[in-house]
């Protein structure tokens, strides 16, 4: 665990949650279609409520369990007094590449797509392989970027047709400050994912923070890659809602986490404001880590010499992996 980075992350979280109240989302999303993954509970549900309140024309709730998704849909409709047609529930299992590809194919038929809030995530202390990678990496990283790249063509099409700037937001965490990059060797070609899938070398207590720093690397690299295209700009950012009461750690039994949650955590609703801000943020947020609804520098281990090398090596491996999963998916570069 990097000491200086960890101290910065901890102090930032305590300060933010003690002294800063996130701004209540305001704006006009009328006419827009937005997808929110993991939207039947927690931050995704509360972010969806804000989006409906702000007038989004069509909200696509992407969920693993259609029954739970429909129950959440009814609760949202009741609390926002929106018309039944304003919310749809679609099946999406981020633990399955087939499900991700099927979902993206369905989304390609939408009349328009303005934004994606890729909120679905996992935190677990149990090592298991899903598809071809450790499950946390599959859900939080590989499938997330697979979904994003599959949707970029539709987002760009909507940008051209409706004169909009599409947005992609992936929630992050100050826990990325405590991520250990010790076992990731950027000099050894093709070794990043092999290291992540080594059960003996994996510290699962630190796996969620590690997945979040990989998201930071991915967002920074993807923003740079997409910006080189002559196609319409697609903004991608990764906001930190800070420590919140949520269902994310449903697979953990950490007593300390539960106690800290009671003492320090923001409400789920307040945390969701950071995600809505990300969805509504302008070009200045592109490729950026956000905290307290502002662009903020990520951990120093992201931007130091080793971090830069890891970002390059990781993104190269990720792109190769995604192309194997869905041939042609990287043609948006």
TrEMBL record:
Gene3D superfamilies: NAD(P)-binding Rossmann-like Domain. InterPro entries: NAD(P)-bd_dom_sf (IPR036291), SDR_fam (IPR002347). This is Uncharacterized protein. Keywords: Oxidoreductase. The keyword Oxidoreductase applies. One of its GO terms (molecular function) is oxidoreductase activity. Belongs to the short-chain dehydrogenases/reductases (SDR) family. It comes from Penicillium cf. viridicatum. It holds the Pfam family adh_short.
């Amino acid at each position: 665990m990097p000491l200086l980075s960890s101290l910065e992350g901890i102090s930032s979280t305590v300060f933010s949650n003690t002294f800063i109240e996130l701004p209540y989302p305001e704006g006009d999303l009328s006419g827009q279609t937005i997808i929110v993954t993991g939207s039947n509970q927690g931050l995704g549900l509360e972010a969806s409520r804000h989006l409906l309140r702000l007038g989004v024309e069509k909200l696509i709730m992407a969920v693993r369990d259609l029954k739970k998704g429909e129950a959440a849909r009814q609760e949202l409709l009741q609390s926002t007094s929106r018309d039944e047609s304003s919310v749809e529930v679609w099946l999406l299992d981020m633990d399955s590449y087939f499900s991700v590809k099927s979902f993206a194919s369905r989304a390609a038929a939408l009349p328009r797509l303005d934004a994606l809030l890729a909120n679905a995530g996992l935190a677990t202390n149990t090592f298991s392989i899903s598809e071809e990678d450790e499950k946390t990496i599959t859900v939080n990283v590989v499938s997330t970027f697979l979904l994003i790249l599959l949707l970029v063509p539709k987002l760009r099409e909507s940008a051209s047709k409706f004169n909009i700037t599409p947005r992609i937001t992936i929630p992050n965490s100050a826990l990325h400050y405590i991520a250990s990059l010790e076992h990731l060797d950027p000099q050894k070609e093709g070794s990043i994912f092999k290291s992540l899938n080594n059960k003996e070398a994996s510290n699962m207590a630190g796996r969620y923070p590690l997945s979040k720093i990989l998201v930071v690397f991915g967002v920074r690299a993807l923003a740079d890659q997409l910006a080189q295209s002559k196609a319409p700009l697609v903004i991608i950012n990764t906001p930190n809602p800070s420590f919140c009461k949520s269902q994310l750690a449903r697979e953990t039994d950490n007593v300390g986490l539960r106690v800290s949650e009671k003492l320090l955590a923001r409400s789920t609703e307040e945390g969701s404001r950071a995600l809505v801000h990300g969805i509504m943020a302008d070009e200045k947020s592109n490729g950026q880590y956000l905290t307290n609804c502002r662009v903020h520098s990520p951990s120093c281990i992201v931007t130091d010499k080793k971090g830069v090398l890891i970002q390059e090596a990781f993104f190269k491996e990720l792109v190769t992996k995604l192309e194997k999963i869905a041939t042609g998916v990287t043609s948006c570069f």
